[in-house]
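User: My collaborator sent over this chain with a note saying "see what the structure looks like." That's all I know about it. Can you take a look?
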Amino acid sequence: MQHEVPKKPKKIEDMAFRFDAFANGKAVYNKTKNRLPAMGWNSWNAFGSGNTEALTKAMADALVELGLDKLGYQYVVLDDGCYKSERIEGKLSNEDVKFPGGFKALSNYIHEKGLLFGMYNDIGTNLCAGAAVGTCGHEEMDAASYLEWGVDFMKVDNCYYLWDNATFSDATNARYVYAPNIKGIRLEGEGMQLSLNAVADGRLTGRGGEKKEDYVTNLGTFDGTGPDATPIGVQSGELEFRIVAPKDGEYKLYVNFASGEEPGCGSWLQVAVGNGEETKLFYDDFLISEKNQEGESLFSESAAITVALKEGENTLRLMNHRRQENTLDSYATLLKALKEQAPQKDILLSICEWGKTQPHNWGYKVGDSWRILNDITFRVGADGDPGVGSWTDGYTPSVTSQYNKAVIMDEFAGLDKGWNDPDMLMVGMNGLTEEMCRTHFAMWCMMNSPLMLGLDLRRVKKGDWIYQIIANKELIALNQDALGIQAKRIYCSLEKENPDTAYIRDTNRVDVLAKPLADGGVALSFINVSDKVQGKQTVTKAQILERLSEKLGENSLFEQAKAYKITDLWNGNSWESTSDLFETESLSAYGNATWKVTPVL
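Assistant: Without extra context I'll predict from the sequence alone. Here is the result:
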């Protein structure tokens, strides 16, 4: 069955998918809320595209044999490499050699063990490993297949995406992502004739836009795939003009522009008047400029764009938010197909677009979690090889690169939203010591990150050091606490004023995280991010209350208490304290001390 690839993204009719609605808190298509972070096992880190039906069954067996299922590890997820390389009569189908029994039989095997079954796809045309079976344009058919196979969890990637320069997509797809370069605008109507210069008269808002000598460029959404910049704050740039109209009416807008198809200069322009959900969008399409004999784009004036202005002051916005809007719309299309065909089926949607379009701004509308960066490891294993993990890295494949970003993203997560996903756990993988793995696990539990194991579980023996980490009931309880609040960084040795929002990549530091709990207590984790032993670390009750006051509430048991029971969640030791100081004597390199502090009333 031939599938015609569209020439441009579809028109977005519903304002729910627009940038100006990202902050309204409203999910779409009855997305499930109040779901705690997912726990389970994913095939990618250990086996990559080499995963098989036999290996998957072995991992399901191991989850049960080790008793990890009783601790909450429910999902067994097939990642990339499980499908045939092309569709058969338009449908997805299992790779015959690696998955000879088919997905339905494998799903049944997993369900019979009391576990849940997960699969993988992509919103683009191809999967990241290359198979031409992405969901783009096939959402309804694929939803029917996944429901037939009994899928409970969908991890959906972003490679080969048509409307962005994603990992393996055409680089010229940047034309969809950025607005053209703009020199100025001209407005006519109701007796008004007005010409404004983009550099002199325009105002840049948000992030990214740049004023050159005689034009404005880089109007779009910052690419969050890499760790180069903070996730805090508006991630898109706009060019605004203040327009004072003589009366209500329609006006003709002409834009002096030069289009392109590279990062910073694209060919898609949005023109709007107003802000927030009252915004009126008047243009949302390509603007293509002429080129000279050398192929360079020339500045020229657009055809007239009709805009409605009200008498008095108006805010005219030139922008391109389609990087976020298109991606949201693509994930929503799959969610819609699943919900329409099986309204009562509860399928978890794990958004895996690597933070590219800042999904912490919009992911809550459709997803249960959203990846915040590119992969935590680029060295995935083959059969029997657990792969290679690292503590630090200049890009994303390391524990600390993921943690450094996720730790300041607590305000984007919650039971009413979903969870920041710093990717799968690397506990037990080559390259990480036992101490690193303990701290890695504590970080993910405190941050309410999904706990998806990534190692070959046949390497784990009940009671060994790997098991003792991933089976720590008290740490898991923090991650799965009913209150559903991600920990906040209340102290950082490199940042005194704003430890909860400052983006810090220097690992020569100590952090302290505090997490409110449903029983009125607080979890504290002293984290040595550095490779050096650190001495005594102290935080005060006042510091905790200052940073957590809104989350603890007016009648906080923690605030009222005169004494506290403190339990070390790694060794089980407990002691009572009447002090307002919480301190640990020292921290080993890469080490942590994680405590539950319970009010004694």
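A starting point for your reply to your collaborator: The chain has a mean pLDDT of 96.
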